[in-house]
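Objective 1.3, modelling of assemblies. Example input:
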Amino acid sequence: MNDALKIELPQITKANGLGTGPIPIEPYISPEWYEREKKQIFGRAWLCMGRVEQLPEANSFITTEVEVCGVLVLITRNKADKISAFHNVCSHRSNMLVLEPAGTASKFACRYHNWSYRNDGSCLGVPDRENFFDLDLKERGLTPIACDVWEGWIFINLQPEPEVSLKEFLGSFGEAFRDAPFPAAEQFFTIDVGNMRANWKVTIDAFAEPYHVPVLHTATVGATFANKLNPFSRPLSGNARGSHRTLTTFGNPDYTPPEDALVERLAYGNVDTGNVLGSDVNSLDAGGLQNHPAINPNRAPSWATEIAWMFPNFIIFFSPGGFFSIEFWPTSVNTTRWMAKVHIPVAQDVRQRFQQEHHNCRMGEIFLEDVSNLECQQKAMESGAKKEIILQDSEFLLRHSIETVMKWVEAATVREVLK
Amino acid sequence: MQQTTQSDALLPPGFGELEGFVAYWAGETNDIRWDRRSRAAMAEIRRFYDAMLPRGEDAMKYLEKFPLAEMPDDATRLFRLLLSLAHASMAVEMHRQPRAKFSPFPHGMHIGRGPWPQGS
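Predicted structure (C-alpha coordinates):
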Protein backbone atom coordinates (compact mmCIF):
# COMPACT_ATOMS: atom_id res chain seq x y z
CA MET A 1 0.00 0.00 0.00
CA ASN A 2 1.78 3.17 -1.02
CA ASP A 3 1.58 6.51 0.74
CA ALA A 4 -0.38 8.15 -2.03
CA LEU A 5 -3.29 5.91 -1.15
CA LYS A 6 -3.39 7.05 2.45
CA ILE A 7 -6.46 9.00 3.35
CA GLU A 8 -6.44 12.13 5.41
CA LEU A 9 -9.09 11.74 8.08
CA PRO A 10 -9.51 14.98 9.99
CA GLN A 11 -10.60 15.46 13.59
CA ILE A 12 -13.94 17.22 13.41
CA THR A 13 -15.81 17.62 16.68
CA LYS A 14 -13.16 19.52 18.65
CA ALA A 15 -12.04 21.49 15.61
CA ASN A 16 -15.58 22.84 15.36
CA GLY A 17 -15.62 23.84 19.01
CA LEU A 18 -18.16 21.25 20.15
CA GLY A 19 -18.18 19.37 23.44
CA THR A 20 -17.22 15.73 23.75
CA GLY A 21 -19.42 14.55 26.61
CA PRO A 22 -22.44 12.24 26.62
CA ILE A 23 -25.81 13.50 25.35
CA PRO A 24 -28.98 13.21 27.47
CA ILE A 25 -31.72 10.96 26.09
CA GLU A 26 -34.55 13.11 27.40
CA PRO A 27 -34.87 15.29 24.26
CA TYR A 28 -35.54 12.15 22.20
CA ILE A 29 -38.32 10.78 24.40
CA SER A 30 -39.86 13.50 26.55
CA PRO A 31 -43.33 14.85 25.67
CA GLU A 32 -42.54 18.06 27.60
CA TRP A 33 -39.36 18.57 25.59
CA TYR A 34 -41.33 17.96 22.39
CA GLU A 35 -43.76 20.73 23.36
CA ARG A 36 -40.83 23.10 23.75
CA GLU A 37 -39.38 22.07 20.37
CA LYS A 38 -42.74 22.71 18.77
CA LYS A 39 -42.82 26.29 19.99
CA GLN A 40 -39.14 27.22 20.10
CA ILE A 41 -37.86 25.40 17.00
CA PHE A 42 -40.62 24.63 14.50
CA GLY A 43 -42.55 27.72 15.50
CA ARG A 44 -39.52 30.00 14.94
CA ALA A 45 -37.07 28.47 12.43
CA TRP A 46 -37.30 28.89 8.66
CA LEU A 47 -38.55 25.54 7.38
CA CYS A 48 -37.65 24.20 3.96
CA MET A 49 -40.74 23.04 2.08
CA GLY A 50 -39.25 21.95 -1.24
CA ARG A 51 -38.03 23.43 -4.48
CA VAL A 52 -39.41 26.05 -6.83
CA GLU A 53 -39.52 23.44 -9.61
CA GLN A 54 -42.41 21.80 -7.75
CA LEU A 55 -44.31 24.91 -8.84
CA PRO A 56 -43.26 24.68 -12.48
CA GLU A 57 -45.38 27.42 -14.06
CA ALA A 58 -47.48 30.48 -13.34
CA ASN A 59 -50.48 29.55 -11.15
CA SER A 60 -48.92 26.31 -9.91
CA PHE A 61 -49.67 25.45 -6.30
CA ILE A 62 -48.83 22.82 -3.71
CA THR A 63 -50.35 22.07 -0.33
CA THR A 64 -48.73 20.44 2.66
CA GLU A 65 -48.91 20.21 6.40
CA VAL A 66 -46.58 21.06 9.25
CA GLU A 67 -48.08 18.55 11.66
CA VAL A 68 -45.90 19.49 14.61
CA CYS A 69 -47.43 22.98 14.62
CA GLY A 70 -50.80 21.85 13.29
CA VAL A 71 -50.46 24.19 10.33
CA LEU A 72 -51.95 23.62 6.87
CA VAL A 73 -49.88 25.26 4.16
CA LEU A 74 -50.76 26.45 0.66
CA ILE A 75 -47.85 27.58 -1.50
CA THR A 76 -48.61 29.38 -4.76
CA ARG A 77 -46.80 30.84 -7.74
CA ASN A 78 -48.82 33.70 -9.16
CA LYS A 79 -48.77 34.93 -12.73
CA ALA A 80 -45.94 37.30 -11.91
CA ASP A 81 -43.95 34.23 -10.71
CA LYS A 82 -44.02 35.37 -7.11
CA ILE A 83 -44.00 32.46 -4.69
CA SER A 84 -46.15 32.97 -1.60
CA ALA A 85 -47.40 30.87 1.29
CA PHE A 86 -50.72 31.00 3.11
CA HIS A 87 -52.58 29.12 5.76
CA ASN A 88 -54.73 26.76 3.73
CA VAL A 89 -57.82 27.86 5.62
CA CYS A 90 -60.97 29.59 4.39
CA SER A 91 -61.82 32.92 6.01
CA HIS A 92 -65.50 32.07 6.38
CA ARG A 93 -65.86 29.17 8.83
CA SER A 94 -62.21 28.15 8.86
CA ASN A 95 -62.48 25.04 6.73
CA MET A 96 -59.55 23.58 4.83
CA LEU A 97 -59.53 25.39 1.49
CA VAL A 98 -57.48 23.42 -1.08
CA LEU A 99 -57.59 19.64 -0.86
CA GLU A 100 -55.43 18.71 -3.86
CA PRO A 101 -51.73 18.10 -3.06
CA ALA A 102 -50.63 20.03 -6.17
CA GLY A 103 -52.02 21.54 -9.34
CA THR A 104 -52.54 24.68 -11.38
CA ALA A 105 -55.11 27.30 -10.46
CA SER A 106 -55.28 31.08 -10.45
CA LYS A 107 -58.04 30.99 -7.85
CA PHE A 108 -59.39 28.64 -5.21
CA ALA A 109 -62.94 28.06 -4.06
CA CYS A 110 -63.93 26.57 -0.72
CA ARG A 111 -66.10 23.52 -1.33
CA TYR A 112 -68.20 24.30 1.73
CA HIS A 113 -69.84 27.62 0.70
CA ASN A 114 -67.88 28.58 -2.40
CA TRP A 115 -65.91 31.49 -0.95
CA SER A 116 -63.16 32.12 -3.47
CA TYR A 117 -59.62 33.51 -3.36
CA ARG A 118 -56.97 34.57 -5.87
CA ASN A 119 -53.60 32.84 -5.62
CA ASP A 120 -52.18 36.05 -4.14
CA GLY A 121 -54.40 35.35 -1.14
CA SER A 122 -56.99 38.09 -1.74
CA CYS A 123 -60.64 37.24 -1.27
CA LEU A 124 -62.35 37.24 -4.66
CA GLY A 125 -65.96 36.52 -3.92
CA VAL A 126 -68.54 35.49 -1.37
CA PRO A 127 -71.88 33.99 -2.45
CA ASP A 128 -74.93 35.83 -1.11
CA ARG A 129 -72.62 38.46 0.26
CA GLU A 130 -75.51 40.87 1.02
CA ASN A 131 -76.78 38.50 3.67
CA PHE A 132 -73.65 38.89 5.81
CA PHE A 133 -73.16 41.71 8.32
CA ASP A 134 -70.59 44.41 7.54
CA LEU A 135 -68.43 42.00 5.52
CA ASP A 136 -65.32 43.65 4.05
CA LEU A 137 -63.65 41.33 1.53
CA LYS A 138 -60.38 43.24 1.84
CA GLU A 139 -60.11 42.03 5.42
CA ARG A 140 -60.99 38.46 4.54
CA GLY A 141 -58.07 37.28 2.44
CA LEU A 142 -56.08 34.16 3.25
CA THR A 143 -53.76 34.45 6.24
CA PRO A 144 -50.23 34.78 4.87
CA ILE A 145 -47.24 32.76 6.06
CA ALA A 146 -43.80 34.33 5.74
CA CYS A 147 -42.13 32.79 2.68
CA ASP A 148 -38.80 33.26 0.96
CA VAL A 149 -36.62 31.43 -1.55
CA TRP A 150 -32.91 30.59 -1.36
CA GLU A 151 -31.10 28.94 -4.31
CA GLY A 152 -34.39 27.51 -5.54
CA TRP A 153 -35.45 26.16 -2.12
CA ILE A 154 -38.72 27.44 -0.69
CA PHE A 155 -38.82 28.25 3.02
CA ILE A 156 -41.64 29.32 5.32
CA ASN A 157 -41.56 30.79 8.79
CA LEU A 158 -44.51 30.34 11.13
CA GLN A 159 -43.83 33.42 13.22
CA PRO A 160 -46.35 36.08 12.19
CA GLU A 161 -43.39 38.48 11.94
CA PRO A 162 -40.19 36.42 11.59
CA GLU A 163 -37.52 37.62 13.99
CA VAL A 164 -34.79 37.07 11.42
CA SER A 165 -34.71 36.97 7.63
CA LEU A 166 -34.06 33.73 5.76
CA LYS A 167 -30.64 35.09 4.82
CA GLU A 168 -29.75 35.67 8.46
CA PHE A 169 -31.13 32.27 9.41
CA LEU A 170 -29.03 30.46 6.81
CA GLY A 171 -25.98 32.59 7.65
CA SER A 172 -22.64 31.01 6.76
CA PHE A 173 -24.39 27.92 5.35
CA GLY A 174 -26.23 30.06 2.84
CA GLU A 175 -22.99 31.81 1.94
CA ALA A 176 -21.08 28.56 1.52
CA PHE A 177 -23.66 26.98 -0.78
CA ARG A 178 -24.37 30.04 -2.87
CA ASP A 179 -24.77 29.02 -6.52
CA ALA A 180 -24.63 25.32 -5.66
CA PRO A 181 -25.76 23.28 -8.68
CA PHE A 182 -28.95 21.24 -8.45
CA PRO A 183 -28.94 19.02 -11.55
CA ALA A 184 -32.24 17.41 -12.56
CA ALA A 185 -34.04 19.70 -10.11
CA GLU A 186 -37.24 19.32 -12.15
CA GLN A 187 -37.62 15.57 -11.67
CA PHE A 188 -37.51 13.31 -8.66
CA PHE A 189 -38.78 10.02 -7.44
CA THR A 190 -40.04 9.85 -3.89
CA ILE A 191 -39.72 7.35 -1.11
CA ASP A 192 -41.85 8.21 1.87
CA VAL A 193 -42.84 6.88 5.24
CA GLY A 194 -46.09 8.28 6.56
CA ASN A 195 -45.73 7.53 10.22
CA MET A 196 -42.59 5.98 11.55
CA ARG A 197 -42.46 5.13 15.24
CA ALA A 198 -39.38 7.13 16.14
CA ASN A 199 -38.64 10.66 17.28
CA TRP A 200 -37.72 13.01 14.43
CA LYS A 201 -34.17 13.46 15.72
CA VAL A 202 -33.65 9.72 16.12
CA THR A 203 -34.80 9.39 12.52
CA ILE A 204 -32.75 12.18 10.98
CA ASP A 205 -29.65 11.13 12.91
CA ALA A 206 -29.60 7.79 11.06
CA PHE A 207 -29.04 9.65 7.80
CA ALA A 208 -26.26 11.80 9.12
CA GLU A 209 -23.45 9.53 10.28
CA PRO A 210 -21.41 7.09 8.20
CA TYR A 211 -20.26 5.06 11.26
CA HIS A 212 -23.26 2.71 11.00
CA VAL A 213 -23.11 2.17 7.26
CA PRO A 214 -20.60 -0.71 7.03
CA VAL A 215 -22.50 -2.43 9.87
CA LEU A 216 -26.24 -1.94 9.41
CA HIS A 217 -26.15 -1.65 5.62
CA THR A 218 -23.80 -4.56 4.93
CA ALA A 219 -26.24 -6.12 2.49
CA THR A 220 -26.99 -3.04 0.44
CA VAL A 221 -24.13 -0.53 0.49
CA GLY A 222 -21.67 -1.57 3.21
CA ALA A 223 -18.85 -2.26 0.78
CA THR A 224 -19.48 0.99 -1.02
CA PHE A 225 -18.53 3.27 1.84
CA ALA A 226 -15.64 1.55 3.57
CA ASN A 227 -12.44 -0.22 2.62
CA LYS A 228 -9.19 -1.35 4.22
CA LEU A 229 -7.87 2.20 4.35
CA ASN A 230 -11.00 3.49 6.02
CA PRO A 231 -12.75 0.47 7.55
CA PHE A 232 -15.12 2.50 9.73
CA SER A 233 -16.09 4.91 6.99
CA ARG A 234 -14.72 7.96 8.78
CA PRO A 235 -15.77 11.29 7.28
CA LEU A 236 -13.45 13.40 5.13
CA SER A 237 -14.54 16.78 6.49
CA GLY A 238 -17.10 18.29 8.80
CA ASN A 239 -18.15 21.88 9.32
CA ALA A 240 -20.49 23.65 11.71
CA ARG A 241 -22.16 26.41 9.72
CA GLY A 242 -24.22 28.50 12.14
CA SER A 243 -27.28 26.45 13.11
CA HIS A 244 -26.57 24.23 10.10
CA ARG A 245 -23.84 21.69 9.38
CA THR A 246 -22.09 19.65 6.73
CA LEU A 247 -20.10 16.44 6.48
CA THR A 248 -18.20 14.83 3.62
CA THR A 249 -18.44 11.05 3.60
CA PHE A 250 -16.01 8.54 2.18
CA GLY A 251 -16.65 6.34 -0.83
CA ASN A 252 -14.68 3.19 -1.51
CA PRO A 253 -12.90 3.82 -4.83
CA ASP A 254 -12.33 0.09 -5.25
CA TYR A 255 -16.00 -0.81 -5.16
CA THR A 256 -17.33 -2.99 -7.95
CA PRO A 257 -20.51 -5.04 -7.80
CA PRO A 258 -19.86 -8.50 -6.32
CA GLU A 259 -19.28 -11.34 -8.79
CA ASP A 260 -22.70 -12.81 -8.13
CA ALA A 261 -24.56 -9.49 -8.31
CA LEU A 262 -25.51 -10.19 -11.90
CA VAL A 263 -28.43 -7.81 -12.16
CA GLU A 264 -26.43 -5.02 -10.59
CA ARG A 265 -23.78 -5.71 -13.22
CA LEU A 266 -26.39 -5.78 -15.94
CA ALA A 267 -27.68 -2.40 -14.80
CA TYR A 268 -24.37 -0.72 -14.16
CA GLY A 269 -21.89 -1.09 -16.97
CA ASN A 270 -19.52 1.42 -15.42
CA VAL A 271 -20.38 1.62 -11.77
CA ASP A 272 -18.51 4.06 -9.56
CA THR A 273 -18.84 4.56 -5.83
CA GLY A 274 -19.69 8.19 -6.24
CA ASN A 275 -22.76 7.42 -8.24
CA VAL A 276 -24.19 4.45 -6.39
CA LEU A 277 -26.13 6.99 -4.34
CA GLY A 278 -26.08 9.77 -6.88
CA SER A 279 -28.85 9.34 -9.31
CA ASP A 280 -27.24 9.89 -12.67
CA VAL A 281 -25.21 6.73 -13.02
CA ASN A 282 -23.81 7.87 -16.31
CA SER A 283 -22.29 10.97 -14.87
CA LEU A 284 -19.39 11.34 -12.48
CA ASP A 285 -19.94 15.03 -12.20
CA ALA A 286 -23.59 15.89 -12.66
CA GLY A 287 -24.09 19.60 -13.11
CA GLY A 288 -20.46 20.29 -12.28
CA LEU A 289 -21.16 20.00 -8.59
CA GLN A 290 -17.69 18.59 -7.87
CA ASN A 291 -16.35 22.06 -8.56
CA HIS A 292 -18.42 23.81 -5.94
CA PRO A 293 -16.19 24.94 -3.03
CA ALA A 294 -18.62 23.79 -0.29
CA ILE A 295 -19.05 20.31 -1.74
CA ASN A 296 -16.20 18.08 -0.59
CA PRO A 297 -14.42 21.24 0.62
CA ASN A 298 -11.15 19.44 1.39
CA ARG A 299 -11.05 18.10 -2.18
CA ALA A 300 -10.59 14.54 -0.90
CA PRO A 301 -10.20 12.10 -3.80
CA SER A 302 -12.63 9.39 -2.65
CA TRP A 303 -15.66 11.29 -1.47
CA ALA A 304 -19.16 9.86 -1.76
CA THR A 305 -21.56 12.41 -0.30
CA GLU A 306 -21.68 15.93 1.02
CA ILE A 307 -24.36 15.89 3.68
CA ALA A 308 -25.75 19.42 3.95
CA TRP A 309 -28.13 19.55 6.89
CA MET A 310 -30.28 22.65 7.17
CA PHE A 311 -31.55 23.12 10.72
CA PRO A 312 -33.81 21.72 11.91
CA ASN A 313 -35.13 18.96 9.68
CA PHE A 314 -33.95 19.06 6.08
CA ILE A 315 -30.90 17.41 4.52
CA ILE A 316 -29.56 17.82 1.00
CA PHE A 317 -27.22 15.02 -0.06
CA PHE A 318 -24.82 15.92 -2.87
CA SER A 319 -22.80 13.23 -4.60
CA PRO A 320 -20.84 13.15 -7.84
CA GLY A 321 -23.90 11.76 -9.64
CA GLY A 322 -26.49 14.27 -8.45
CA PHE A 323 -28.45 15.20 -5.34
CA PHE A 324 -31.37 14.11 -3.23
CA SER A 325 -33.10 15.55 -0.20
CA ILE A 326 -34.82 14.08 2.82
CA GLU A 327 -37.23 16.02 5.02
CA PHE A 328 -38.27 14.86 8.47
CA TRP A 329 -41.52 16.08 9.99
CA PRO A 330 -42.39 15.26 13.60
CA THR A 331 -45.98 14.05 13.99
CA SER A 332 -45.68 13.41 17.74
CA VAL A 333 -42.88 13.00 20.28
CA ASN A 334 -42.16 9.52 18.95
CA THR A 335 -43.50 9.46 15.41
CA THR A 336 -42.13 11.02 12.23
CA ARG A 337 -43.24 11.48 8.64
CA TRP A 338 -40.32 11.61 6.26
CA MET A 339 -39.84 11.79 2.56
CA ALA A 340 -36.88 11.43 0.24
CA LYS A 341 -36.93 13.23 -3.09
CA VAL A 342 -34.32 11.70 -5.35
CA HIS A 343 -33.59 13.87 -8.35
CA ILE A 344 -32.87 11.95 -11.53
CA PRO A 345 -32.56 12.84 -15.18
CA VAL A 346 -35.22 11.66 -17.62
CA ALA A 347 -34.09 8.26 -18.86
CA GLN A 348 -32.88 8.37 -22.45
CA ASP A 349 -33.15 4.66 -23.14
CA VAL A 350 -34.22 1.33 -21.70
CA ARG A 351 -30.88 0.59 -20.07
CA GLN A 352 -30.79 3.90 -18.24
CA ARG A 353 -34.38 3.40 -17.12
CA PHE A 354 -33.41 -0.05 -15.83
CA GLN A 355 -30.50 1.48 -13.91
CA GLN A 356 -32.89 3.97 -12.38
CA GLU A 357 -35.21 1.19 -11.23
CA HIS A 358 -32.25 -0.58 -9.66
CA HIS A 359 -31.13 2.66 -8.03
CA ASN A 360 -34.65 3.36 -6.75
CA CYS A 361 -34.90 -0.20 -5.40
CA ARG A 362 -31.59 0.04 -3.61
CA MET A 363 -32.46 3.39 -2.02
CA GLY A 364 -35.71 1.83 -0.78
CA GLU A 365 -33.89 -1.14 0.69
CA ILE A 366 -31.30 1.04 2.42
CA PHE A 367 -34.06 3.11 3.98
CA LEU A 368 -35.93 0.00 5.00
CA GLU A 369 -32.88 -1.26 6.86
CA ASP A 370 -33.06 2.00 8.80
CA VAL A 371 -36.78 1.83 9.57
CA SER A 372 -36.87 -1.20 11.82
CA ASN A 373 -33.58 -0.21 13.37
CA LEU A 374 -34.92 3.20 14.38
CA GLU A 375 -38.19 1.88 15.74
CA CYS A 376 -36.17 -0.50 17.91
CA GLN A 377 -33.93 2.34 19.04
CA GLN A 378 -36.88 4.54 20.00
CA LYS A 379 -38.41 1.75 22.05
CA ALA A 380 -35.09 1.05 23.75
CA MET A 381 -34.56 4.73 24.52
CA GLU A 382 -38.03 4.93 26.05
CA SER A 383 -37.30 1.85 28.17
CA GLY A 384 -35.30 4.10 30.49
CA ALA A 385 -32.36 1.72 30.71
CA LYS A 386 -29.98 4.47 29.69
CA LYS A 387 -30.02 8.15 30.51
CA GLU A 388 -27.53 9.26 27.90
CA ILE A 389 -26.00 8.38 24.54
CA ILE A 390 -22.36 8.48 23.55
CA LEU A 391 -21.17 10.05 20.31
CA GLN A 392 -17.82 9.67 18.55
CA ASP A 393 -16.11 12.02 16.13
CA SER A 394 -17.78 10.56 13.03
CA GLU A 395 -21.12 11.39 14.65
CA PHE A 396 -20.26 15.07 14.61
CA LEU A 397 -23.44 16.11 12.79
CA LEU A 398 -25.60 14.51 15.49
CA ARG A 399 -23.76 16.33 18.23
CA HIS A 400 -23.99 19.65 16.45
CA SER A 401 -27.68 19.00 15.82
CA ILE A 402 -28.60 18.22 19.41
CA GLU A 403 -26.46 21.08 20.75
CA THR A 404 -28.26 23.41 18.34
CA VAL A 405 -31.67 21.99 19.26
CA MET A 406 -30.90 22.64 22.93
CA LYS A 407 -29.80 26.20 22.20
CA TRP A 408 -32.97 26.96 20.25
CA VAL A 409 -35.18 25.41 22.92
CA GLU A 410 -33.53 27.46 25.67
CA ALA A 411 -33.11 30.76 23.82
CA ALA A 412 -35.60 33.54 24.44
CA THR A 413 -35.03 34.98 20.97
CA VAL A 414 -33.85 33.61 17.64
CA ARG A 415 -31.33 36.38 17.28
CA GLU A 416 -29.74 35.27 20.52
CA VAL A 417 -29.07 31.78 19.05
CA LEU A 418 -27.71 33.10 15.79
CA LYS A 419 -25.29 35.64 17.20
CA MET B 1 -64.66 -12.33 -28.15
CA GLN B 2 -62.59 -13.20 -31.18
CA GLN B 3 -58.89 -12.60 -31.06
CA THR B 4 -56.09 -13.81 -33.22
CA THR B 5 -53.35 -15.97 -31.77
CA GLN B 6 -50.96 -13.10 -32.29
CA SER B 7 -52.90 -10.65 -30.10
CA ASP B 8 -53.32 -13.32 -27.44
CA ALA B 9 -49.57 -13.35 -26.89
CA LEU B 10 -48.76 -11.44 -23.71
CA LEU B 11 -45.14 -10.91 -24.65
CA PRO B 12 -43.25 -10.15 -27.87
CA PRO B 13 -42.12 -13.02 -30.11
CA GLY B 14 -39.17 -14.86 -28.65
CA PHE B 15 -40.10 -14.16 -25.02
CA GLY B 16 -42.96 -16.64 -24.74
CA GLU B 17 -41.29 -18.69 -22.02
CA LEU B 18 -41.73 -15.72 -19.64
CA GLU B 19 -45.50 -15.47 -20.05
CA GLY B 20 -46.18 -17.32 -16.82
CA PHE B 21 -44.54 -14.47 -14.91
CA VAL B 22 -46.58 -11.64 -16.43
CA ALA B 23 -49.57 -11.83 -14.08
CA TYR B 24 -47.49 -11.33 -10.95
CA TRP B 25 -44.26 -9.66 -12.03
CA ALA B 26 -45.40 -7.14 -14.67
CA GLY B 27 -46.72 -4.67 -12.06
CA GLU B 28 -47.58 -1.23 -13.40
CA THR B 29 -45.68 0.97 -10.99
CA ASN B 30 -42.48 0.82 -9.06
CA ASP B 31 -44.43 0.73 -5.79
CA ILE B 32 -46.51 -2.24 -6.98
CA ARG B 33 -43.43 -4.10 -8.23
CA TRP B 34 -41.74 -3.50 -4.87
CA ASP B 35 -44.79 -4.67 -2.96
CA ARG B 36 -45.14 -7.83 -5.07
CA ARG B 37 -41.51 -8.76 -4.55
CA SER B 38 -41.81 -8.04 -0.82
CA ARG B 39 -44.79 -10.40 -0.49
CA ALA B 40 -43.34 -13.23 -2.59
CA ALA B 41 -41.67 -16.31 -1.12
CA MET B 42 -37.94 -16.61 -1.79
CA ALA B 43 -38.49 -19.64 -4.05
CA GLU B 44 -40.85 -17.59 -6.24
CA ILE B 45 -38.48 -14.66 -6.40
CA ARG B 46 -35.66 -17.02 -7.31
CA ARG B 47 -37.71 -18.71 -10.03
CA PHE B 48 -38.48 -15.36 -11.65
CA TYR B 49 -34.91 -14.12 -11.25
CA ASP B 50 -33.46 -17.27 -12.79
CA ALA B 51 -35.83 -17.08 -15.76
CA MET B 52 -35.57 -13.33 -16.39
CA LEU B 53 -31.86 -12.71 -15.82
CA PRO B 54 -30.62 -14.64 -18.87
CA ARG B 55 -33.15 -12.73 -21.01
CA GLY B 56 -32.31 -9.29 -19.54
CA GLU B 57 -29.87 -8.26 -22.25
CA ASP B 58 -32.17 -9.60 -25.00
CA ALA B 59 -35.12 -7.75 -23.52
CA MET B 60 -33.21 -4.46 -23.43
CA LYS B 61 -32.11 -4.89 -27.05
CA TYR B 62 -35.66 -5.69 -28.14
CA LEU B 63 -37.20 -2.80 -26.19
CA GLU B 64 -34.72 -0.27 -27.52
CA LYS B 65 -36.64 -0.38 -30.82
CA PHE B 66 -39.47 1.62 -29.25
CA PRO B 67 -39.74 5.10 -27.74
CA LEU B 68 -39.53 4.63 -23.96
CA ALA B 69 -42.98 5.91 -23.15
CA GLU B 70 -44.81 4.54 -26.21
CA MET B 71 -44.34 0.81 -26.39
CA PRO B 72 -46.97 -1.59 -27.66
CA ASP B 73 -48.74 -3.59 -24.96
CA ASP B 74 -46.67 -6.76 -25.30
CA ALA B 75 -43.42 -4.78 -25.16
CA THR B 76 -44.71 -2.80 -22.16
CA ARG B 77 -45.27 -6.08 -20.30
CA LEU B 78 -41.75 -7.22 -21.13
CA PHE B 79 -40.43 -3.82 -19.99
CA ARG B 80 -42.21 -4.21 -16.67
CA LEU B 81 -40.83 -7.72 -16.25
CA LEU B 82 -37.35 -6.34 -16.89
CA LEU B 83 -37.88 -3.64 -14.27
CA SER B 84 -39.08 -6.25 -11.78
CA LEU B 85 -35.76 -8.00 -12.23
CA ALA B 86 -34.15 -5.07 -10.38
CA HIS B 87 -36.56 -5.68 -7.50
CA ALA B 88 -35.93 -9.43 -7.48
CA SER B 89 -32.20 -8.76 -7.38
CA MET B 90 -32.56 -6.92 -4.06
CA ALA B 91 -33.74 -10.17 -2.49
CA VAL B 92 -31.38 -12.47 -4.38
CA GLU B 93 -28.19 -10.43 -4.58
CA MET B 94 -28.37 -8.27 -1.46
CA HIS B 95 -30.59 -9.61 1.30
CA ARG B 96 -30.47 -13.33 0.35
CA GLN B 97 -34.02 -13.36 1.65
CA PRO B 98 -37.25 -11.71 0.43
CA ARG B 99 -36.90 -8.54 2.49
CA ALA B 100 -34.29 -6.59 4.40
CA LYS B 101 -33.26 -8.41 7.57
CA PHE B 102 -35.45 -7.53 10.57
CA SER B 103 -37.51 -5.12 8.49
CA PRO B 104 -41.18 -4.92 9.39
CA PHE B 105 -43.83 -5.76 6.80
CA PRO B 106 -46.03 -4.06 5.89
CA HIS B 107 -43.50 -1.31 6.54
CA GLY B 108 -45.52 1.76 5.54
CA MET B 109 -42.81 2.88 3.15
CA HIS B 110 -43.92 3.83 -0.34
CA ILE B 111 -42.48 4.91 -3.61
CA GLY B 112 -44.87 7.80 -4.13
CA ARG B 113 -43.54 8.37 -7.58
CA GLY B 114 -41.02 6.07 -9.23
CA PRO B 115 -38.69 6.78 -12.10
CA TRP B 116 -40.70 7.11 -15.28
CA PRO B 117 -42.17 5.82 -17.50
CA GLN B 118 -43.73 2.84 -15.66
CA GLY B 119 -43.09 4.70 -12.40
CA SER B 120 -46.45 5.72 -11.06
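Residues 41 and 408 of chain A are 6 Å apart (CA to CA).
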